Structure formats: C-alpha cells, structure tokens
Amino acid sequence: MTSENKIEIYTDGSCLGNPGPGGWGAIIFHNNEKIILSGNDKATTNNRMEMMGMIGALQWLHENPQLKDHLQNQKIIFYSDSNLLIQTLNQGWKRKANLDLWAKIDKHRAWLDINWTWVKAHAKNKFNNEVDVIAVSESRKLVSDKDI
After folding, report:
1. Catalytic annotation, residues
2. For the whole model, what pTM was predicted?
3. pLDDT at site 144
4. Which burial class, exposed, middle or buried, applies to 110 when counting CB atoms under 10 A from its CB (0-12, 13-18, 19+)?
5. Domain boundaries defined on the chain
6. Which of 5, 6, 60, 135 could form a disulfide with 12 if both were Cys (CB 3.0 to 4.6 A apart)?
C-alpha cells in the first residue's frame, strides 16, 4: 500500500445530531502497516469530529517513535470527505469556527509535506468507507439503546 517514505491517512468524523454525540476515526498506512485510531465526544458537531480525525492522526505521527527523527522526510497524503476542511487547508478559506481545533491542526502540520486530498463520501473508496464506519461506531458508543 505504501512505501517507506510515504504515509497515507484516511480520516472521518460523525455526529448523531448536530450537536450531539460524535466520533472520529483515522486509518494510517505506513511501512505496510495499518493503524486504526478513534475517539468520541458526548456533545460536539460533525465539523469538530472531522477535524479531530485529522488531529488524532497528526498527533500519532508526532508521537510515533519510528517517525520522530524522520517525519520531515515523509510524504503524507491525507484523505477526507470534508470539502470544507480540504479547501480550507489547500485554498486558505477563512476560518470562522472551531478556531481551537484549527490551531491544533496548524501546530501539528507545520513543516510537514502534506497533500490534503478530498474523496467523495459514501462512494467507492474502500478506506474512506471503512473510516466512516469507525467514526459512526464511536458516535454510537455514547448513545444508549433506548435513544436509538
């Protein structure tokens, strides 16, 4: 899937209600390994969860001991179905909300060679669909059976 100097990352977020319980997921491919990250928040929005997927993956990159000294030499490709996030990162769209999360993204992406790539949601991209399932699953962990 990936070469030694290339990292591919798929991220997604989910929210049951907006605001409501939400979840995020990230799938990282590096050195022929597949790493899955996820998390949730009991009161959030879909955009915040989309951003948390990116932040979770970026934090993993910085905290991974194998990458610590070589991170700047890696080509990183992020895939997201959030056109808002991708266009903001690629085109410099104005940031109007979630400024706390934008600050975290900016901090962790500084000096990295990242290609921010949009993928169509719920289409034929296997890993985008898989990370969507992870994010929705994280959201559902916060909802009791009687709420479904």
Report:
1. 12-13, 50, 81, 122, 132
2. 0.91
3. 67
4. exposed
5. 6-147
6. 135
